[in-house]
Amino acid sequence: MSKTHLTGETITLIEMLNVREKRANIQQELLQKHPNCVLLSATMNIPGPVKTNEQLRQAFLTVMKEINSLFPPEKIAALKHRELKTGSEYYLVLNETAKELKRKLIKVEETHRYGRLMDLDVVYLKEQALCSVSRSELNYKPRTCFICEEEAKICGRQRRHSVEEMQETISQLLRKEG
Known about the structure:
The two termini are 22 Å apart. This protein is of the alpha+beta class. It is globular. The model has no long low-confidence stretch (mean pLDDT 91). The chain has five helices and five strands; from the N terminus they run H-E-H-E-E-H-E-E-H-H. The chain has helices at 13-33, 54-68, 98-111, 152-158, 163-175, and strands spanning 38-44, 76-84, 87-94, 118-126, 129-132. It has a five-stranded antiparallel beta sheet.
């Protein structure tokens, strides 16, 4: 088997930490402008120092197109899309309940061919603080590892798979024809 890895611009830990802080600020701003709405905050979960390239961007946009099709225009209060070297970010402010939105997004995570690569977070304001809806709140099982089907958080914590192994799996998924 030929070893391939994700190619693209590498990023640093500091850049990732800075973009996470900026993401939280964007979430707060969007929800303060639309306090009666909920927010989909979408990113990709890509291990290693390369977080985006053209194939990953296209996979991300494919999932966002499917998600957008789930909501009539009158439910969409705001939308923001950012393409950064730390990865694609998509924010969709919706007139929807947090739990109903999370249910729809879990279905996308579990059925779309790129769903396992996505982080689809549902965020809302409670007493001016950012809160999110977890899978467990809705009685869904935790996300599984895209290599071995075990619980993803346990695999990550125990470092069961190398970054190279995870990147190879992602590269294979991106190469497969739809």
